[in-house]
Amino acid sequence: MKIIETRELKKTYTLGKVEVNALNGVNALVEEGEFVAIMGPSGSGKSTFLNMVGMLDVPTSGEIYLNGTEITKMEEHARVEYRLRNIGFVFQFFNLFMELTAIENVMFPMMLSGHPFYKERAEELLESVGLKSRINHLPSELSGGEQQRVTIARALANQPKLLLTDEPTANLDTKATHEIMELFRRLNEEKHQTIIMVTHNPELGAKTDRIIHFRDGKVVK
Amino acid sequence: MKLSELKAALFYARRDIVKNKKVFIFITAAIIFATANIIIVNGFMDGIANDLVSNSIETSIGHLNIYPGEDDRFIEGVGFKEKKLSSMDEVVAFSSRLYASGTLSFRDKATAVNIIALDATNEKRVTNLLEKLDRGNTLEANDRDILISFRLAEDMGADAGDDVQVVFENGASQTYRIKGITHTGSYELDVNTVFMAKAEANSRLGFDDKASIILVKLTDKDIAGEKKQVMMDELGVFKVKTWWEEVEHIVKSAGAWSEFSNIVSAVGLVASAISVGVVIHINVVHKRRQIGIMKAIGASNSFIFTVFIFEAGLFGIIGVVGGDLLGYYGTRYFETHPFWEPITRTWFRARFYPYLLYNASIVSFGITILAGIYPAIKARRINIIKAIWG
């Protein structure tokens, strides 16, 4: 079953008097349960694509179907609600709320959505990412790898259909990078979690099911 | 907004405001002191006004006060009017006073004085003017001695037991012994005033059956308004003032001072509110990326706005509760520990009224919330893409 389908997706930014076509007619498809890497040179449109399918931004033209729902014409409040319940994000760095402990960070999206057992589920999620003993630590007391694992637990809080990650290991050492990739792989294989990961690293790309190559705002392969 | 979002906003706001404990303590202390300042200063203003009004009622005026007509210096036919007053059910007591002027001489000094002549027995039933003595003894009915105000005594270097000469406005002159020195707390009565028996003044001035004012004490001062016209009709007088009309100028004057002090207090409060606004604003600026991520994971713009309004609200609640407590105990303290005011030589004491808490709380909380609105709007307008990717 298709979880993402884009049709002739275009995004044009205006920088002063210059118009930049960040996406130039992207047609892409991701099946449910896939672990997909998006690769390409800087400025190829990878992150812009992620913003569009993550409903953080709206395209200039074209259509995006998430789980069969056309999302580009949704009202802002509906987009927010859809994002909260269906999409999880893991960004490159400084992802966590620094004044909240690890468990509070994971609880937060569930508190927003009104999950009745947010504390128990947050504990389960942190245990599943190997941080049971660190639940009451502030982000400043955690290593970079641990912080990213908390972020992943938070992204999974509302059981999203789609996990979007943008260079999730860019600031991590090799060991932590390996652990995060293992975690993604486990989530994908055991929970059938659909994951789309933007990366520059071919080694990481090779660990996914499929790579979508971007160049000049288009899917080239 | 859903209840779950409100709970989450409150949860985050609570964590956020205490993350920097020093800033939290500084900001809440500013609001606490600003709120307490409003309560205590207004407590003083109310206390001073109240004391002035009470003092005036106790010493200077009756519940109803009968004056001469517009073109007359004296009320004529006082004997008849007193008889009428005696027959009225609501009248408890009355005192006719005669005001005149003259000169008082002691040794090589002389000064102009106001002479208040009264019937001591009647006056004691209406006011406690004759009990307000610094030293010496008070006047009794048909006394031939006099009382003088404490400022007059100071200026003349005279004291109880001394003999002074009084020259009346008609030129009549008489030597009197000072029986006592008064200190009423009313500026007008404490300046250059001589008190003497009305019979004695009448005999020197050649007056009969006259008064400058008749002070009337009623069974209840609250019925003064409704009895005013009755009194005018029954006695055939044209100018009667209630106690409230007599003290109106004091209340208005206190009100003007109160407004001034409120402006001063407001400056302090606005300063503390600005510090709340600045702290939240800095928070918003420093948290751009976090706010972006918060939006990315599903927080709405109204949620973001609410978080920062809650932060201002929490500062406000803690500051107002602390300020109310400090203001309450501060005002209570100054009720029992008044300031000595050397010019009027009276005690300035604060007085606590519950409305002081309500007003200060509403104003402080309101201004603190207002201070949070701008940064909250700024936070809700943050663009997700720019915040996350710069």
From TrEMBL, chain A:
Tell me the GO molecular function terms.
ATP binding; ATP hydrolysis activity; transmembrane transporter activity
At the top level of its lineage, which domain of life is listed? Answer: Archaea
Entry keyword annotation includes Transport: yes
GO CC, alphabetical: membrane protein complex
* Coiled-coil regions listed: none
Q: Name one Pfam family in it.
A: ABC_tran
Work out whether the entry's keyword set contains ATP-binding.
yes
Give the UniProt keywords, A-Z: ATP-binding, Nucleotide-binding, Transport
Which positions fall inside the ABC transporter domain? 4-220
Report the family membership: Belongs to the ABC transporter superfamily.
This protein's name: ABC-type antimicrobial peptide transport system, ATPase component
UniProtKB/TrEMBL annotation, chain B:
Matches recorded under InterPro entries: ABC3_permease_C, Lipoprotein-release_system
Topology in the lipid bilayer: Multi-pass membrane protein
Q: Which GO terms describe its cellular component?
A: plasma membrane protein complex
Query: Transmembrane region positions?
Result: 23-45, 263-282, 303-329, 355-377
Where does the record place the ABC3 transporter permease C-terminal domain?
A: 262-384
Keywords of the record, alphabetical order, are: Cell membrane, Lipoprotein, Membrane, Transmembrane, Transmembrane helix
A GO BP entry? lipoprotein localization to outer membrane
Q: Which domain of life is it from?
A: Archaea
**Classification via PANTHER family:** LIPOPROTEIN-RELEASING SYSTEM TRANSMEMBRANE PROTEIN LOLE
This protein is called: ABC-type transport system, involved in lipoprotein release, permease component
Which organism was this protein described from? Answer: Candidatus Methanoperedens nitratireducens
